[in-house]
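S.,

As promised, the adenosine-5'-triphosphate run. Input:
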Amino acid sequence: MTGVDIVIEFKDVNKSYKNGKVALSNINLKIDKGEFVFLVGSSGAGKSTFIKLLLKEKEVTTGKIIIEGQDITKIPRRKIPQFRRNIGVVFQDFRLLPNKTVYENVAFAMEIIGQSSKNIRRRVPFILGMVGLSDKAKFYPHELSGGEQQRVSIARAIVNKPSLLIADEPTGNLDPSTAKEIMNLLMDINRRGTTIIMATHAKDLVDKMRKRVIALDKGKVVKDEERGTYNYDK
Ligand SMILES: Nc1ncnc2c1ncn2[C@@H]1O[C@H](COP(=O)(O)OP(=O)(O)OP(=O)(O)O)[C@@H](O)[C@H]1O
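Predicted complex:
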């Protein structure tokens, strides 16, 4: 997928869980290559479900999700790992490997997709420089601040040059000024061409950035606005 136009399209997507709970209802939207999209909505609105469908962690009940012309609902189970390589993911709780250094955490993401050690030695220092962690390469996660740990997790998410980066509450565990720094880093990555979808409750950040805002409420899109704000009418 790298380097190819990524366009995400949800076509009449519905998702109900086994208990009958409707998590997403009749979602129709398109996200173009290079966009930065905030996904907002109160707890239970359907943001995590939206992300899980994109990653194929969950399957749609009905409808299609098309990424770069491919209907991902049709990808067979055995091809899911390969599909996921094209998407970087960042979580609220960082999810770093505690027994690996910063360098090793990022290198590991390249090792598991079979990159040569020569490529790894060239790429990891470059990415650590980009996220401002060159001097922390030999540190372990527990020796870092929350903001630094999140930078490592962002480095790991982008080291294999995904076209799409999904950030699920990436600033949720950070104080406001650190959250702003992480936001700036994500904007920087977006300016370099990576499409970003960020689920968040961080009203201040959303209002400041004035990027596209998609708001969910009870599984429905209740707002989709260019240069939007956090608030939406239910
Ligand atoms: N595995 C599941 N089985 C049954 N119901 C589920 C499951 N996962 C989520 N739900 C329900 O689907 C709805 C949407 O949940 P989802 O986790 O997508 O919301 P969210 O917007 O991500 O919330 P939060 O901000 O709290 O993470 C909720 O009502 C939730 O209880």
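The mean pLDDT is 94. DSSP finds seven helices and ten strands in the chain.

- D.
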